[in-house]
Amino acid sequence: MNPLTIAIIVLVVLVIAVIGIYNGLIRARLRAKEALSDIDVQSKRRYDLIPNLIETVKGYVSHEKNVLENVTAARTRVATGGSALENAQAENALSATLKTLFAVLENYPQLKANENFLELQRELSDTENKMQAARRFYNSVVQDLNAKVQSFPSNIIARTFSFHEEKFFELSTIDEAKPVAVKF
Question: Distance (Å, rounded) from C-alpha 114 to C-alpha 19?
Answer without folding.
Answer: 59
